[in-house]
Design a protein that fits this description.
mainly alpha, 11 helices, 84% helix, 0% strand, globular, DUF7847 domain-containing protein, transmembrane helix, transmembrane
Length: 277
């Protein structure tokens, strides 16, 4: 089972090359300003978040390509930041184009879901008697659409690895990812479960911290619906020292997970890629 056997070489590569944590640390630090600003002003925090999202969209292909190339080197021995810069420059355009294709697909999917919800609300208000059936139909369509979206993500998740490791163009990289996954469905499913499970554990802290942060910066009592969802967390407020500790812990956990998952993904892809790529 390649999904499990590649865990050890990935961990060994990280021990030899702690520099692999640099890229996820940079990504984590890019997220930090919006969280800090949010504690002062949610409105300004929203603006900062929007600006940083634009920066992330432009920087992510460079950092992704660089991290994949560094992990590839680290699995065979040592790597360095020069590899990040070289690979980021060489593969920025193909990774950016492939990322753009997936980004547009995301917009289309969530745009269709939004339109469906809007139509359901409008029709439900105009004709209350037919709203239940319409909600059921649109809900089922939304689930099918979301399932297809997850299926596409599942098959195309190794496009960056394919572009960088196999020196392919954007569309060839997407095609190679789909082909490799199709040939190793069981292994890829287990790999996704392992990565998703570890990611969920790290993400749980981020979700709880986000709830506590929202509660801490609220200037009015928490509305009842929010309290119903968050439960006792909605009434907790964090002191400044706890906020600082929370920010540092969030950065650390994001860095650890990003470094591990980036290296693990490369180790797994190398194990299942065509031998004559």
């Amino acid at each position: 089972m390649e999904a499990l056997s590649t865990l050890r070489p990935a961990a060994a590569a990280l021990r030899r090359n702690p520099v692999l944590f640099v890229v996820p640390a940079v990504l984590a630090l890019l997220q930090l300003p919006q969280l800090v600003v949010q504690t002062v002003s949610p409105f300004v925090g929203g603006i900062v978040s929007l600006l940083l999202s634009g920066v992330m969209l432009l920087a992510l292909p460079f950092l992704q390509a660089g991290l994949i190339a560094m992990a590839h080197e680290a699995l065979d021995g040592q790597t360095r930041l020069a590899t990040l810069v070289a690979a980021g420059k060489e593969y920025y355009i193909p990774v950016f184009l492939a990322f753009g294709v997936l980004f547009v697909c995301n917009l289309v999917v969530f745009g269709l879901v939004f339109v469906g919800v809007f139509v359901a609300v409008v029709v439900g208000l105009a004709q209350p008697g037919s709203s239940t059936a319409l909600f059921l139909v649109l809900g089922l369509a939304g689930l099918v659409l979301f399932g297809l979206y997850l299926l596409v993500v599942f098959f195309l998740q190794f496009y960056v690895q394919a572009i960088v490791l196999d020196d392919l163009g954007p569309f060839a990289g997407l095609k190679r990812s789909a082909s490799v996954v199709r040939s190793h469905l069981g292994d890829t499913f287990v790999y996704s479960l392992v990565g998703g499970g570890i990611g969920a554990l790290f993400g749980l802290f981020g979700a709880v911290f986000s709830i506590l942060l929202t509660s801490s910066v609220a200037t009015t009592p928490t509305p009842t619906p929010l309290a119903d969802v968050y439960g006792p967390l909605a009434d907790v407020s964090l002191s400044l020292p706890l906020l600082v500790v929370g920010f540092l812990a969030l950065v650390l956990l994001t860095t650890l997970f990003g470094g591990f998952f980036g290296t693990y993904s490369v180790a797994f892809y190398r194990a299942i890629r065509p031998t004559a790529a």
